[in-house]
Amino acid sequence: MLRMINLKTWMVLLVALGIVLTMPLLGLAGGHGHKKPAKKAILLVTFGTSVPSAQKVFKTVEAAYRKAFPGVEIRWAYTAKFIRDKLAKKGQVLLSPEVALAKLLDENYTQVAVQSLHVIPGAEFHDLLAVVHGFKDMDPNFRPLIGYPLCATTDDLQAVAAALVADLPKGRSPKQAVVFMGHGTPHPAGVVYPAMAYILKKKDPHIFLGTVEGYPTLEDVKEGLKAAKIKEAYLLPFMTVAGDHAHNDMAGPEPDSWKSVLEKAGIRCKPVLKSITENPNIVKIFIAHTKNVMKHFK
């Protein structure tokens, strides 16, 4: 009986000694839970482009952000892996949103506004949203919040339409149409495009909007132009960069490009390789979305 009591006593003492010895280690492991000083950053996330002339607009966007958010770190990320891979072969390293956020976390940033530079809240935006939510559980001090893409609300659509109408090609006559080419998507957010087309047409009956991979289609645009007896139209991308789609699908010499198809239908075309983010008022809408995020960090 005495030996049993002694054994139990030794077991209690050993457990107590183990707790005492591991207390400093437990304190070190829990150190990351202490509140860190606020350190803000903005991560601008775009689909990306490998067209050098199209990439120039990102410098303009970044300059506008640095002016609007002085002293805040500005970083970039591309969601398109094939574009990142293509640029990497040329020595230009662009990060994915996951890697960019991991670096910000490692560098002790605590408040990160992840601003989507996508046009609609489609598949890429929702993928980005999932990434941001995943990082929220990694560190109690790390607060990444996402900013809406360009066309997220009815007010956004009205603001975008007003910005586009105010920046139409100079010298355009009332008889000349303006055709915007959007990307399109099978995602439910694709309803933004017909809504945008409707709002633009309310402002000017000779403004049309179609998509490469969705609705309204090029055929819908062509029928509308013919019904309005349009003989000449400006073609502009409804995209954040005037990249491959603008140069090839819209303005290219191939028989299936928008320019070729419309000219075959008797409508002379004047392509304008100018993205919507070259319009300062469009950039202001993105900045307004980021400011709404930054309010939550105060």
Shape: elongated
Q: Specify Rg, calculated over alpha carbons.
A: 27 Å
Spans of at least 5 consecutive residues whose pLDDT stays below 50 are: 1-31
Biggest sheet details: 4 strands, parallel
Helix content: 40-55%
Q: Hey, roughly how much beta strand do the residues contain?
A: 15-25%
**Mean pLDDT, nearest integer?**
89
Q: Which tags fit this structure?
A:
298 residues, alpha/beta, Rossmann fold, 2 domains, four-stranded parallel beta sheet, 11 helices, 8 strands
Overview of the structural elements:
- The chain has 298 residues and is α/β, with parallel strands linked by helices.
- The chain has two domains: 130 residues, 3-Layer(aba) Sandwich (Rossmann fold), CATH 3.40.50; 108 residues, Rossmann fold (3-Layer(aba) Sandwich), CATH 3.40.50.
- The longest helix has 28 residues.
- The protein is elongated and about 70 Å long.
- Helix 2 packs across helix 11.
- It has eleven helices and eight strands.
- It starts with a helix and ends with a helix.
- Strands 2-1-3-4 form a four-stranded parallel β-sheet, sandwiched between helices.
- The N terminus is likely disordered.
- Helices cover 47% and strands 15% of the residues.
